[in-house]
Amino acid sequence: MNMNKPTNYLALLRGINVGGNSLISMPLLREALSGAGLENVRTYIQSGNVLFTSTNSDRQELSRIIHECIRSNFQLDVAVVIFTSDEWQDIINDAPKWWGVDPDWKHNLLALLPPISSLETVEAIGALKPDIESVAAGNGVVYQSMSFKLFGRTTSGKLAANPIYKKMTVRNYNTATKLLVLLNQD
């Protein structure tokens, strides 16, 4: 455990409050996580975005704390992936030039649950149709963009049917970039 200055973290929870399943109240989640020792706990929208600070630099331990807290307080088995604010800054800064640009395309960030790699994920997605979709490997993430109009014809749009889908949590471009703004707020 690092007892120095607290670090800002982002925890992404997989599959909560989606389609009426795995429902968790954000105020109750904030309260539970604060009670588990996390500091300055905030949430953004209902889809499992938790911002917090901690002097603990062991992300596996932080992930375990969050996982166990959710299990004991909400009786849910929720996968968690954690990024530091600096890592999230780099992820947004290192995005491909095409990600988030075309308003006629859907832009997602696929945050990968360790130990899955971005290269494994890109390979599992398969051959793309470059005129209607793009994916690129990042550090612990995969950037994804697809035509709204031709979404049904895309390879990466069928990701939910792929077994690798259970090894990630997805945030859209607007949420991913808003989380960076929130991480940088004091």
What does this structure look like?
- This protein is of the alpha+beta class and 186 residues long.
- The chain folds into two domains: 7-84, 2-Layer Sandwich (Alpha-Beta Plaits), CATH 3.30.70.1280; 94-183, bacterial protein sp0830 like (Alpha-Beta Plaits), CATH 3.30.70.1260.
- It has helices at 26-35, 59-74, 85-93, 118-125, 173-183; strands at 7-13, 39-44, 49-54, 80-84, 105-112, 133-137, 141-147, 168-172.
- The strands form two sheets. It has a four-stranded antiparallel sheet with strand order 2-3-1-4, sandwiched between helices. A four-stranded antiparallel sheet has the order 6-7-5-8.
- Strand 6 (133-137) and strand 7 form a beta hairpin.
- Helix 3 crosses helix 5.
- The longest helix has 16 residues, at 59-74.
- It is globular.
- The model has no long low-confidence stretch (mean pLDDT 94).
Mean pLDDT: 94
CATH class of the largest domain: Alpha Beta
**Rg (CA only):** 17 Å
By DSSP (H or I, 4+ residues per run), the number of helices equals 5
Taken in chain order, the helices and strands follow as EHEEHEHEHEEEH
* Gross CATH architecture of the largest domain: 2-Layer Sandwich
Unreliable spans:
none
Strand content: 25-35%
Q: Characterize the main sheet.
A: 4 strands, antiparallel
- From the helix content, strand content and strand pairing, which structural class follows? alpha+beta
Number of domains: 2
The CATH H-level homologous superfamily of the largest domain: bacterial protein sp0830 like
Task: Briefly note the CATH topology name of the largest domain.
Answer: Alpha-Beta Plaits
How far apart the termini lie comes to 23 Å
Assign an overall shape. Answer: globular
Please count the beta strands (DSSP E, at least 2 residues each).
Answer: 8
Strand order of the largest sheet: 2-3-1-4
